[in-house]
Backbone:
């Protein structure tokens, strides 16, 4: 079956440092979605990427979709304590949406 | 943006009882709703996909008779955990997809179930 691997599982950074999480699918995807879950909360949709090589930005967050539509990344520039949480990617292939295990980000002030 | 509600937000029940969780799309028609469960510090695990008016499609390893899903309307889906046991204790999250061509899923706030 379709697998979505996400690395790293966990990262601890100092406020102001950059952060990147990577998502790799075993199969070509129709699109990829990113979610953020704050501690104790529920996943909140951030963005969806559809096109090969697509790059989208949301303030300090940059999302990329690979040319082969099998991998994606989320990069946060100059992290802030409010960025703390778990970032999930979810790859869609046909009618199936498969979540990665998430990357837990901890930001120290 | 689209809002999805879940009720109840928390429930504690005795082992052997059944618990019903409701998922509603408040301002859009949800053709498809998804039910997930999430164990602490783990990823969401898709349990089933329900399409309005038809039977739910369950993921491998999910017991249909234990987790009853009904999607009777375009705004409501229910998940009933039958004869709940302590190992069913988890965070259950639903999401709903509207007819937006981006196929975005909107997540509910989740229901925390504790079975004693």
Residues:
């Amino acid at each position: 079956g379709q697998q979505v691997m996400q690395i790293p599982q966990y990262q601890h950074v100092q406020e102001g440092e950059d952060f990147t999480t990577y998502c790799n699918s075993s199969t070509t995807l129709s699109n990829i979605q990113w979610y953020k879950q704050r501690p104790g909360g529920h996943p909140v949709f951030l963005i969806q990427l559809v096109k090969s090589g697509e790059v989208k930005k949301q303030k300090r967050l940059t999302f990329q979709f690979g040319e082969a539509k099998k991998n994606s990344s989320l990069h946060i520039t100059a992290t802030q304590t409010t960025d703390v949480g778990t970032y999930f990617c979810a790859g869609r292939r046909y009618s199936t949406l498969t979540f990665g295990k998430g990357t837990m980000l901890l930001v120290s002030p | 943006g689209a809002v999805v509600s879940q009720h109840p937000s928390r429930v504690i029940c005795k082992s052997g009882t059944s618990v019903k969780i409701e998922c509603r799309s408040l301002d859009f028609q949800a053709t498809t709703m998804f039910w997930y469960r999430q164990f602490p510090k783990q990823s969401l695990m898709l349990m089933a996909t329900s399409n309005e008016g038809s039977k739910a499609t369950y993921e491998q390893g999910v017991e249909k008779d234990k987790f009853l899903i009904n999607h009777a309307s375009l705004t409501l889906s229910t998940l009933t955990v039958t004869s709940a046991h302590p190992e069913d204790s988890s965070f259950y999250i639903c999401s709903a997809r509207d007819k937006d061509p981006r196929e975005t899923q909107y997540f509910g706030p989740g229901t925390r179930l504790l079975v004693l």
